[in-house]
Structure formats: C-alpha cells, structure tokens
Design goal:
- The protein contains two helices and seven strands.
- It is globular.
- By secondary structure, the protein is an alpha+beta fold.
- The chain has a seven-stranded mixed β-sheet with strand order 1-2-6-5-4-3-7.
- The chain has one domain (about 5-100).
C-alpha cells in the first residue's frame, strides 16, 4: 500500500499524487522553504492561476499559484492519465512554457 500524503484532482481532469516520503525529500533536500506548505501545494494543484507545459518535456506541467507575495510552482509529470509531483518551489517569476490552462477571471 502506497503512503500518499495527498491525491488532488487538477482542473485538467487528472489526479496529482505525492507520497509522504517524497514530500519529506523535497522539503529536507531540495526546497526547505516549503516546510509546512503542503496545503498551499494542494491548493495550487486544485485551483492554479495558470498551468504551463514545460519547454523541455511535454509530459511535465508547471502549476502556478500565489503563496504570500511569491509564486508557488508545483512541477508535475503526467503519465498514464495520472500525475505525480516532481518538485515544488517559490519563485518571483514564471518559467517560459506554453500556457495550457488559465483560471477564468
């Protein structure tokens, strides 16, 4: 049985998942600034401001939403109809990439 920290339905019609162990790796090794921001990550996945397709890999999507005064980017790989979190980070600017979904005003 997989130990999912969360499974979130995205507005693009697929579920994005992240295990507890992988989230621990993200916040301990990659981006400690995201410690305690699990709820923000889930919100960005379910209610993003914008989703862009990566310029480097067409199966990778970048979900953007605000967290305080900065953008929170959650990077997701979509395979076989489901997605999983690759990483997440805070940023001042969005990466280039093809916008594929934007929240309605």
């Amino acid at each position: 049985m997989t130990d999912w920290l969360f499974q979130v339905e995205s507005p693009l019609g697929f579920t994005v998942r992240c295990t507890t162990n992988y989230w621990t790796f993200i916040v301990s090794e990659k981006h400690p600034a995201l410690t305690g921001k699990e709820q923000d990550v889930q919100r960005v996945l379910s209610e993003p401001n914008e989703v862009r397709r990566s310029n480097k890999d067409s199966n990778v999507l970048l979900f953007y939403g605000m967290s305080g005064i900065r953008w929170l980017c959650v990077v997701v790989r979509k395979e076989n109809g489901a997605g999983f979190v690759i990483t997440a980070y805070l940023t001042d600017t969005k990466k280039t990439g093809e916008p594929i979904w934007t929240r309605s005003k």
